[in-house]
């Protein structure tokens, strides 16, 4: 004796948020039922496990049927098969495209290729996120990437329009796309302490300041690729460390400004040249794609770690970077003010964001 | 005369990829109507083609316009091979043929393929230019409006209700044609879909013709069904109620026809005749010719319900064509068989000879039937010893004493051999017949009424005679498919009448195969004359049966009438049921009686005539119940039959509302609860479920087996209903629907109804359990614990449903209410404070206590089963009627849904095991629904419609369609007197509502409705005062859904218009401003990759969602934003998991409408209105 067939179809498609989340999380029907039972929905609604199972299966089926539409969220609004109120549609899309920070940290900056997809079971084991969910998230990244890769216009706006995502989520996707496109290395051990949001913030900075779109938003491909010309110009900054005078001058200006204002003054003074070299070298090397990938590693290794070992506070960091940036403009022989500003603006906010435990 | 159909193909979207290489499609469209086809250009390499075609014009007969759908096929152009079909769209253009409905079809419609489902959408524009056809001999009936709604549609007023219309068409099923072996599944499915489209179009056209002939302009309560008879063919049949509707008016109400078939004087003359409905009557007929052998067995459980099951295996002999084979009773009686149980067989010849093979083509001949049995027949019938009394059937529960239902009792009870034995031992013996008072009805409906007419003096006489006769000619069947009536229309309700018959299917002879039409349809009627047996004749038998049952209950009409079939292999059970009732003639004032209307086509003033006639015919014959002024809250409960000649041993009491007329103690009906009814507390869904195993058999043996099972099934369903009703302390059932489904190895029965406590009816006695072996102490203890459980449940249920019967007023004590009853009632009023046990003890003495005797394990299980119905979770109510009594303040949140379950049984289950499984299946399904819809709490599941089927051995399929509606909890629960008051207010409100609407529309649209509001107001006044009872302090504010109105078309917002669907006839919080036409769609879906589509559940889930989507899209294309009276008529699911295949057929219907939200109440309007109406209320007290 068994229930052979069991369906429920509403004129307005009924979707339970909780079950939807369980489905998104990749739970099997049975696991989902267990979770729901533990959640106490049974007592609340005088239901039995049987009822719960039936409901869960039914919902899962509905979600599966909707999934194909969710791949093209714009279709969800003008398809006829399911009558779903607009607020529900938005919820469905938002949750479908939501991702786990844990997961995204694993694939951030990796090429969204079949090879990466094959490794997802490792990611799944490592993060404890179900493989199914990993695949969905990965496919979402890839789908968004494919669509916006070729589009003109601002990246975030494109994502928002094509996938009907809320602003914050669109920004996150922009970061993911940006990272994937530039293949930033984020997986190294030294970077493990950083969250996705740290990277997303940096991505936002880079997109807004270092891409072609940042200067001219009518250009193609501008938001996903760094402004080559700018990268080229960054080489000119090398003078700040290669010219001994300039370096000393710079140091003394910064030291004068900071004296008495920080507890780590001595360490700063001792380290100034190293730190400055670190930052300028990063800038100078960015023209090489490979060095772009190591951008965050370099930032951490060359700058953040030394400072951290010297126990700088964020305030110290802020002060230092402000004066470091500004002082350069006072240097007589330093001519690359525009590039310096554009570079240091991003570097400063990135470092401040990345400078935590 | 022709019309011009124009179609334009605008664009497509979301098309499937047809060319793998390019991932694109080269789509073009073929537009076909009749035999004409147009094509668009190919729009290359696009999934979103923009054809923007010219207007394709078809010049066609309006007959074709009605029959044919516009067929749009989307194809993928292929240079080298045949073009691939992407899918099709069938557009029913009927709504465009009626001036008041839609004017254009425009919108995105899903492209449907029977194998792949929906594959993209196409945007089309369709218009019709119709030239008026004045040809008297035309075959078309354009302009007749069709409504699935079983009440007067919301924005119409019924001028006249003409009566019953029916039609059926027959064809071969393409699925079973030889050619099917060589064509693809897709081609077969499409042939079938198209054929059914054509057949329904034709059916509708023919019904329309009948309506026009009757002088009507609309069909309300249109119910169309398919019988997939397999090898033997395909039958599409429809019934409905012909009406003359008028757009918008003060009252929804309606004039109906008075009872033309008013019970005549004959009734009085032969008083005994009427009561003949015994608890169990069986009308067995006919002789057993082995060749034409057929068994006919009647069975009926009477009183509030009168059920009849007859079974007649098909009869192959060439007996009289339209012979009422089912009605052997006639023949037998006529010769005066009465008191002896004469051998029935020889009477056969008589039966037929006495019948003129009536009814050739037209309906006129019905009167000729009636002549046959005018002889008012006798009491004797009932005493006919052959009458297998029901009591024999009740033997499983031998000492069941049914207070008022199921009276097994027969006058000659002692002499009656128990039916049980008879039927078990030898079915042949069953063919004795006891007929009852058929003649009565015939007399009344036919020439017999001449008698009564004769007694009236004056010039009226001739007119009356004419009237009655012609009315009767028309009224072969005084049936109404309506389930809700305008206030005051429904006078009295007798009880449920039902009839069943078992038939053997045989290939339908199809003389029309040589027909010239491209598709082979045939109108069975026109060929029936030389056919030995037709589907039409089958239904005729059943309808006659129903009619006679109604007569037996002293009623001249059957309301809430419906018909259904269940087919398994070659056996078919035909069922019909309805509610015997007496309708008011008072509404004659709203228009001329149809008869006259028909004759002269101009209004005669007949109000007085009508009433007089009623007075004369009915008032005098039946001593009660025909009063013109009845208090609306209880009048319909008053018995229509003669108290002295109760058709069954009922316990009558004086009405608890008005104290003037008698009421039965329990009332079963198939209609909706009248709006004005006084109800105590809330109602609830009551369901009886039954499963009976049956031996596998073939042909006639099978039919015989089924026939002999049917009565038991019905009886037990009825007992279950009664028990469950008592358990909930309720005394009436509305919307009763009994479905019996037949399979190879079992029969399933499910009876659903909404139980309520009618204030007018006596409070039901409790349920008492008694043991057979009182000696055993432990046994007694067992019984008493069980009794306690039951009492607890009753108490709990009372609380749950707010049933607090009103205190009995002192003065009444003197009234002639039977002693025991009164005592119990008085007692009940104390019982609130006193403890349960004492009530229990006392109730032992109560005559009306419902006693269940436990004599074996069966009974014990029955009782357990009784208690297993789990109560609805907090915040939920459920009913199968339109709305839940006691809940008015609906919010606008509605959710229509369909749920289907198929359960696989293990082999070799006992009846009990089966019952339990089946019952659990239904209960679990309900629980699942409650759970699913928990976010809508507080809410009520309305119109819960269960359909059961046995798709194959060991499979049970249950399909439910219903709507969940939220309501505001705030309103205090009403009880007792209050409820009476409230319902009255409600009635007033109802009028207000109509009025407001009228005014509003006048103002808004400056519609040319000449009915001025002043007139409307005065009508309200008179209307109310006419039947007014005390309404001292009517609240000036209408409540609930009458709260009105400001149009606010919020539905145009999103890119896909929201279309609401509901099985109800209204949308809470909204007004329907326009009916756009009927939606009647039939789809087939098939797959040969079942697993890939998510198994059976995934397959069906998708299909149902697709059907919904297509309904919504077509409604939206008509310009509508909702479907009301939606129902899923058919859901036939077949699977073959081994082959990875499944097929499903779904038929849905409903009315497309435009509604507007009543978001704001125009308070001034209401104020004035209530001011106007109220003075008239105070007038009369009860």
Automatic annotation (TrEMBL), chain A:
Organism of provenance: Carassius auratus (Goldfish)
One Pfam family of this chain: FIBP
Signal peptide positions (record): none
GO molecular function, one term: fibroblast growth factor binding
InterPro entries for this protein: FIBP (IPR008614)
Name the record gives this protein: Acidic fibroblast growth factor intracellular-binding protein B-like
Gene Ontology cellular component annotations, sorted alphabetically: nucleus
Gene Ontology biological process terms, A to Z: platelet aggregation
UniProtKB/TrEMBL annotation, chain B:
Organism encoding this protein: Carassius auratus
UniProt-recorded name of the protein: C2 domain-containing protein 5
Residue ranges of every copy of the C2 domain listed in the record: 1-109
InterPro entries referenced in this protein's UniProt entry, alphabetically: C2_C2CD5 (IPR037785), C2_dom (IPR000008), C2_domain_sf (IPR035892), C2CD5 (IPR038983), C2CD5_C (IPR057815), C2CD5_YbjQ-like_dom (IPR056430), C2CD5_YbjQ-rel_dom (IPR056431)
Polar residues bias: start-end ranges: 253-264
Top-level taxon of origin: Eukaryota
Region of interest (Disordered), ranges: 253-294, 312-372, 1027-1048
Primary localisation category: membrane
Keywords tagged on the record: Calcium, Cell membrane, Cell projection, Cytoplasm, Cytoplasmic vesicle, Lipid-binding, Membrane, Metal-binding, Protein transport, Transport
PANTHER family: C2 DOMAIN-CONTAINING PROTEIN 5
Residue spans of biased composition, Low complexity class: 282-294, 353-368
Annotated PROSITE patterns: C2 (PS50004)
GO molecular function: calcium ion binding; calcium-dependent phospholipid binding
Swiss-Prot/TrEMBL GO biological process terms: insulin receptor signaling pathway; intracellular protein transmembrane transport; positive regulation of D-glucose transmembrane transport; positive regulation of protein targeting to membrane; positive regulation of vesicle fusion; protein localization to plasma membrane
Subcellular location per the Swiss-Prot or TrEMBL entry: Cell membrane; Cell projection, Ruffle; Cytoplasm, Cell cortex; Cytoplasmic vesicle membrane
SUPFAM superfamilies from the UniProt entry: C2 domain (Calcium/lipid-binding domain, CaLB)
């Amino acid at each position: 004796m068994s229930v052979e067939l069991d369906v429920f179809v509403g004129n307005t498609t009924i979707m339970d948020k909780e079950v939807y989340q369980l489905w998104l999380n990749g739970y099997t029907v049975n696991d989902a039922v267990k979770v729901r039972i533990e959640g106490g929905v049974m007592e609340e609604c005088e239901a039995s496990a049987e009822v719960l199972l039936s409901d869960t299966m039914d919902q899962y089926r509905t979600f599966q049927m909707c999934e194909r539409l969710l791949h093209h969220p714009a279709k969800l609004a003008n398809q006829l098969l399911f009558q779903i109120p607009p607020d529900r549609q938005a919820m469905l899309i938002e949750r479908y495209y939501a991702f786990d920070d844990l997961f995204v940290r694993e694939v951030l900056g990796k090429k969204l290729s079949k090879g990466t997809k094959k490794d997802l079971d490792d990611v799944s084991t490592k993060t404890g996120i179900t493989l199914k969910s990993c695949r969905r998230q990965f496919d979402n990244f890839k789908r968004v990437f494919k669509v916006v890769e070729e589009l003109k216009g601002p990246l975030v706006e494109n994502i928002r329009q094509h996938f009907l995502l809320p602003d914050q989520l669109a920004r996150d996707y922009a970061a993911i796309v940006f990272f994937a496109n530039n293949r930033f290395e984020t997986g190294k051990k030294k970077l493990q302490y950083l969250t996705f949001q740290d990277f997303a913030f940096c991505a936002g900075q880079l997109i807004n300041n270092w891409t072609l779109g940042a200067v001219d938003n009518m250009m193609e491909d501008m938001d996903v690729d760094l402004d080559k010309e700018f990268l080229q110009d960054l080489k000119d900054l090398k003078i700040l460390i290669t010219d001994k005078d300039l370096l000393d001058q710079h140091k003394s200006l910064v030291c004068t400004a900071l004296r008495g204002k920080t507890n780590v003054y001595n360490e700063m003074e001792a380290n100034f040249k190293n730190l400055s070299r670190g930052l300028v070298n990063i800038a100078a090397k960015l023209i090489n794609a490979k060095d772009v990938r190591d951008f965050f590693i370099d930032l951490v290794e060359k700058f953040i770690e030394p400072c951290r070992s010297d126990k700088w506070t964020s305030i110290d960091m802020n002060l230092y970077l402000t004066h470091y940036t500004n002082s350069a403009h006072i240097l007589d022989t330093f001519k690359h003010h525009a590039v310096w500003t554009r570079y240091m603006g991003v570097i400063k906010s990135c470092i401040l964001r990345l400078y935590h435990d | 005369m022709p019309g011009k159909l124009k179609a334009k193909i605008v664009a497509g979207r979301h098309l499937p990829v047809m060319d793998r290489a390019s991932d694109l499609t080269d789509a073009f469209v073929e537009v076909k109507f009749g035999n004409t086809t147009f094509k668009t250009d190919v729009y290359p390499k696009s999934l979103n083609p923009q054809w923007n075609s010219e207007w394709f014009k078809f010049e066609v007969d309006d007959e074709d316009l009605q029959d044919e759908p516009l067929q749009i096929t989307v194809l993928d152009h292929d240079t080298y091979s045949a073009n691939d079909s992407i899918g099709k769209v069938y557009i029913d253009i009927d709504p465009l043929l009626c001036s008041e409905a839609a004017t254009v079809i425009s919108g995105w419609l899903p492209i449907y393929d029977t194998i792949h489902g929906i594959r993209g959408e196409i945007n089309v524009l369709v218009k019709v230019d119709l030239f008026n056809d004045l040809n008297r001999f035309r075959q078309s009936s354009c302009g007749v409006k069709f409504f699935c709604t079983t009440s007067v549609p919301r924005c119409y007023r019924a001028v006249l209700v003409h009566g019953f219309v029916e039609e059926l068409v027959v064809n071969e099923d393409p699925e079973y044609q030889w050619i099917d072996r060589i064509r693809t599944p897709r081609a077969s499915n499409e042939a079938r879909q198209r054929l059914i489209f054509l057949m329904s179009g034709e059916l509708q056209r023919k019904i329309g013709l009948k309506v026009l002939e009757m002088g009507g302009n609309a069909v309300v309560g249109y119910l169309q069904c398919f019988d997939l008879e397999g090898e033997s063919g395909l039958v599409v049949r429809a019934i409905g109620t012909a009406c003359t509707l008028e757009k918008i008016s003060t009252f929804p109400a309606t004039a109906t026809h008075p009872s033309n078939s008013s019970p005549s004087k004959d009734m009085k003359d032969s008083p005994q005749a009427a009561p003949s409905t015994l608890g169990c009557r069986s009308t067995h007929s006919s002789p057993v010719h082995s060749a034409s052998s057929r068994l006919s067995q009647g069975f009926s459980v009477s009183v509030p319900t009168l059920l009849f099951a007859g079974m007649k295996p098909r009869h192959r002999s060439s007996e009289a064509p339209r012979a009422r084979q089912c009605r052997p009773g006639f023949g037998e009686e006529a010769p005066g068989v009465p008191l002896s149980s004469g051998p029935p067989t020889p009477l056969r010849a008589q039966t037929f000879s006495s019948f003129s093979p009536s009814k050739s083509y037209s309906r006129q001949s019905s009167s000729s039937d009636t002549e046959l049995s005018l002889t008012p027949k006798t009491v004797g019938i009932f005493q006919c010893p052959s009458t297998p009394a029901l009591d024999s059937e009740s033997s499983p529960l031998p000492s069941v004493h049914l207070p008022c239902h199921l009276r097994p009792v027969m006058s000659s009870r002692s002499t009656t051999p128990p039916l049980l034995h008879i039927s078990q031992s030898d079915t042949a013996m069953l063919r004795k017949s006891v007929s009852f008072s058929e003649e009565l009805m015939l007399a009344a409906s036919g020439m017999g009424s001449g008698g009564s007419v004769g007694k009236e003096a004056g010039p009226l006489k001739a007119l009356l005679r004419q009237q009655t006769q012609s009315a009767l000619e028309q009224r072969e069947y005084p049936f109404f498919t309506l389930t809700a009536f305008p206030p005051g229309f429904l006078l009295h309700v007798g009880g449920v009448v039902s009839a069943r018959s078992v038939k053997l299917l045989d290939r339908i002879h199809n003389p029309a195969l040589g027909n010239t039409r491209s598709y082979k349809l045939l109108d069975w009627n026109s060929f029936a004359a030389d056919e030995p047996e037709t589907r039409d004749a089958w239904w005729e038998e059943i309808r006659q049966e129903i009619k006679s049952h109604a007569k037996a209950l002293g009623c001249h009409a059957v309301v809430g009438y419906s018909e259904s079939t269940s087919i398994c292999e070659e056996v078919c059970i035909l069922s019909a049921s309805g509610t015997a009732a007496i309708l008011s003639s008072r509404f004659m004032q709203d228009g001329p009686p149809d008869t006259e209307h028909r004759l002269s086509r101009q209004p005669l003033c007949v109000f007085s005539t009508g009433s007089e006639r009623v007075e004369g015919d009915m008032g005098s014959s039946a001593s009660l119940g025909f009063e013109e002024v009845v208090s609306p809250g209880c009048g319909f409960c008053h018995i229509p039959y003669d108290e002295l000649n109760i058709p069954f041993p009922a316990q009558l009491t004086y009405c608890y509302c008005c104290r003037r007329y008698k009421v039965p103690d329990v009332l079963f009906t198939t209609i909706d609860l009248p709006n004005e009814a006084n109800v105590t507390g809330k109602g609830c869904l009551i369901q009886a479920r039954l499963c009976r195993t049956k031996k596998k058999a073939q042909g006639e043996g099978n039919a015989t087996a089924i026939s002999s099972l049917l009565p038991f099934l019905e009886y037990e369903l009825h007992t279950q209903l009664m028990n469950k009703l008592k358990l909930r302390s309720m005394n009436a059932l509305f919307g009763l629907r009994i479905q019996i489904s037949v399979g190879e190895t079992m029969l399933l029965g499910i009876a659903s109804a909404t139980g309520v406590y009618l204030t007018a009816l006596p409070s039901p006695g409790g349920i008492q359990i008694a043991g057979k072996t009182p000696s055993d102490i432990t046994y007694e203890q067992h019984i008493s614990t069980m009794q306690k459980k039951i009492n607890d449940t009753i108490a709990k249920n009372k609380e749950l449903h707010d049933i607090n019967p009103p205190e009995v007023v002192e003065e009444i004590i003197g009234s002639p209410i039977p002693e025991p009853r009164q005592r119990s009632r008085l007692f009940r009023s104390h019982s609130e404070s006193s403890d349960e046990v004492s009530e229990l003890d006392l109730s032992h003495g109560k005559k009306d206590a419902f006693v269940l005797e436990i004599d074996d394990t069966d009974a014990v299980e029955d009782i357990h089963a009784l208690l297993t119905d789990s109560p609805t979770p907090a915040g939920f109510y459920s009913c199968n009627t339109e709305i839940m009594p006691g809940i008015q303040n609906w919010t606008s949140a509605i959710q229509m849904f369909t749920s289907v379950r198929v359960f696989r049984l293990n082999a070799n289950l006992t009846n009990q095991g089966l019952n339990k499984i089946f019952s659990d299946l239904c209960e679990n399904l309900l629980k699942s629904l409650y759970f699913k819809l928990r976010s809508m709490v507080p809410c009520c599941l309305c119109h819960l419609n269960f359909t059961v089927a046995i798709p194959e051995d060991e499979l049970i399929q249950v399909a439910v369609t219903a709507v969940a509606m939220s309501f505001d909890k705030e309103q205090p629960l009403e009880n007792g007197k209050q409820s009476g008051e409230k319902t009255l207010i409600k009635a007033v409100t109802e009028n207000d509502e109509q009025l407001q609407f009228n005014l509003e529309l006048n103002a808004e649209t400056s519609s040319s409705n000449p009915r001025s509001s002043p007139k409307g107001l005065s009508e309200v006044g008179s209307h109310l005062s006419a039947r007014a009872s005390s309404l001292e302090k009517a609240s000036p504010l209408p409540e609930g859904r009458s709260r009105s109105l400001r149009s606010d078309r919020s539905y145009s917002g999103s890119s896909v218009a929201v279309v609401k669907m509901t099985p109800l006839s209204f949308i809470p919080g909204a007004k329907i401003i326009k009916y756009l036409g009927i939606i009647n769609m039939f789809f087939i879906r098939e797959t040969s990759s079942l697993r890939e589509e998510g198994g059976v559940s995934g397959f069906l889930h998708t299909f149902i969602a697709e059907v919904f989507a297509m309904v919504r899209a077509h409604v939206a294309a008509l310009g509508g934003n909702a479907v009301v009276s939606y129902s899923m008529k058919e859901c036939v699911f077949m699977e073959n998991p081994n082959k990875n295949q499944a097929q499903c057929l779904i038929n849905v219907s409903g009315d497309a409408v435009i509604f507007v939200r009543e978001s704001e109440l125009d308070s001034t309007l209401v104020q004035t209105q209530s001011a106007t109406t109220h003075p008239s209320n105070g007038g009369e007290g009860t």
